[in-house]
From TrEMBL:
Protein name, as recorded: Fe2OG dioxygenase domain-containing protein
Keywords, comma-separated and alphabetical: Iron, Metal-binding, Oxidoreductase
Keyword NAD listed: no
Domain Fe2OG dioxygenase as annotated: residue spans: 218-294
GO molecular function: dioxygenase activity; metal ion binding
Cofactor(s) needed: Fe cation
Source organism, top-level taxon: Eukaryota
Family annotation (SUPFAM superfamilies): Clavaminate synthase-like (SSF51197)
Species whose genome carries this gene: Rubroshorea leprosula
Family: Belongs to the iron/ascorbate-dependent oxidoreductase family.
Length: 294
């Protein structure tokens, strides 16, 4: 980085101020993301990624674990469905999260989706760069930290963002290394989303199609996050504290874990469960909840 205050610093023996804006711009201009830093062999995390120590949350209570709900048979067995609706109601009310198993998305599809995301980020940079943008208008966008220039500290993460519904991109617009699995996985997730909105509607005491009728299930944004190995993990975070501003998030974790949720003022680990998908009740859905059903 070229520091315009370097000459003055030499003359006055005063340490130059940290020019965060210049460092952010220099990082962004590479279009190589966090992976580019790792590929360059850095041994120290750049200051733009440093998080205050109070941002690091430690799980203090191992007695808590988010509910795991078995969705098998909910479309055929009315008794099982009533039981699952009750579990969804309780989990959504108390936690805002649950892990769904036997949800009809094949494990092979989930594994290939994770592999497809890795292939995208690990391909040649020149190929990746064609998707790089700070403008979220395109259907397919790759960048590092959507809020890079506005957040107090950058996250150690690169992201591929694709708007798969209601107006999916043309097949040729999707990255070649993962386009087939993106299409297949999105179909499965849209089907699962439809079921989840039925269960949530019933949990609220509403018609099963209520949330779908007001178009909560109409759109699908697919985000593939990539967290390269960090040389100083004690200084930064892959994802900082946040709330999802959508209707629901269906999260596919890899085997590494690291996800935490805030429950009763404590940060609780959400360890990966083989074959499970994490369901997060988003802020938009909370805003759609009828007062009589809250």
């Amino acid at each position: 980085m070229v520091n315009t205050y370097a000459d003055e610093a030499v003359l006055t023996n005063v340490k130059p101020d940290y020019d965060r804006t210049s460092e952010l711009k220099a990082f962004d201009d590479t279009k190589a993301g966090v992976k580019g830093l790792v590929d360059a062999g850095i041994s120290e995390v750049p200051r733009i990624f440093h998080h205050p120590q109070d941002n690091f949350k430690v799980s203090r209570d191992t007695l808590f674990s988010i509910p795991i709900i078995d969705l098998e048979g909910v479309g055929k067995d009315p008794v099982k469905r009533r039981d699952v609706v009750g579990q969804v109601r309780e989990a959504s009310k108390k936690w805002g999260f649950f892990q769904g198993i036997n949800h009809s998305v094949p494990v092979s599809v989930m594994e290939e989706m994770k592999a497809g995301v890795r292939r995208f980020f690990e391909q040649d940079l020149e190929v990746k760069k064609q998707y790089f943008s700070r403008d979220l208008a395109p259907s397919v966008v790759y960048n590092s930290n959507f809020d890079l220039f506005s957040s107090p500290a950058a996250n150690w993460r690169d992201t591929l963002i694709c708007l798969m519904a209601p107006h999916p991109p043309k097949l040729e617009e999707l990255p070649a290394v993962c386009r087939d699995i993106m299409v297949e996985y999105s179909k499965h997730v849209m089907s699962l989303g439809s079921l989840l909105f039925e269960l949530l509607s019933e949990a609220l005491g509403l018609n099963p199609n209520h949330l779908k009728d007001i178009e909560c299930a109409k759109g699908l944004a697919m985000l593939g996050h990539y967290y390269p190995t960090c040389p100083q993990p004690e200084l930064t975070l892959g994802t900082s504290k946040h709330a999802d501003d959508d209707f629901i998030t269906v999260l596919l974790q890899d085997h590494i874990g690291g996800l935490q949720i805030l429950h009763q003022n404590q940060w609780i680990d959400v360890p990966p469960v083989p074959g499970a998908l994490v369901v997060n009740i988003g802020e938009l859905l909370q805003g759609q909840t009828p007062k009589s059903a809250s």
